[in-house]
Amino acid sequence: MFNNIDTRSVTFNLIVINVLLFIVCSIRPELQHFLSLHYFFNKHDYLQALYNGSIDASQFPNLNQFAQQAYYYGSAGTFMPIQIITHMFMHGSIGHIFFNMFGLLTIGIILERVWGAQRFLTFYIITGFGAVILHMLVQAFLIFKATGNVDPSMALLESNPEAWSTYFSSTVGASGALFGVLTAFAMLFPNTELYLMFIPIPIKAKYFVTVYILIELYSGVAMHSGDNVAHFAHLGGALFGFLLVKYWNRNSNEFY
């Protein structure tokens, strides 16, 4: 498969863009800060007011400390619409980008050959958007649950520390779109046997993807301490992938 990769394909060029941006952001980490996806209601004046001294930071000691730490680690920031696209090409580590790009190369290239470049790219972007939608809705729900408001004041954030990490979190990665790709592959080729690392026996695509989605659902609901994976973004990508394949094939007996 790897010897016959078309360098003009959408899959190949998506991988190139991801790798190039990973290298650039490794050299210039401040770019990751701006291009990562931030919470929809995250307001610039909240953080700017803390950093430029226009408010008395002593009034919000916990929030001030958390925000400064988040900014240092590249997490604090403000929402900009362009981040809906750019975050899909950002990755947090070598392992993160390796597994995403490996999955895109091995599975995505098959879907592109079946659907064609234009439909595959449309699918990839839409499932990435779907991941954003569900992820943002869950973020808003968690912040509302903690503070009673999806757009809380600094005082509310200060008095509800459990909302800080959600409010100031950033999201990166192609995983949402990749889950859409995996879901589509399992729908088109349900009985294809996959050979996975660390698993000595082949697993049919329909079983592997179903179990993987259930694990993501459990992990997202459980919200284990220290878990920084955007599970609901993965689920959003899978859901939109499922719906899009169903829509495209509503009047067809074939899945392509």
Largest sheet: 2 strands, antiparallel
Q: Could you spell the SSE succession in H and E letters?
A: HHEHHHHHHHEHEEHH
Cα-atom Rg, whole angstroms? 20 Å
Tally of separate domains: 1
Number of strands: 4
- Class per helix and strand makeup: mainly alpha
What do the pLDDT scores average to? 86
CATH topology: Rhomboid-like fold
The number of distinct helices, counting runs of at least 4 residues, comes to: 12
What gap, in angstroms, lies between the N and C termini? 21 Å
Low-pLDDT segments, ≥5 res: none
Query: How much helicity do the residues have?
Result: 55-70%
Morphology:
elongated
How much strand content do the residues show? under 5%
Strand order of the largest sheet: 1-2
The CATH level-2 architecture is identified as: Up-down Bundle
What would CATH call the class? Mainly Alpha
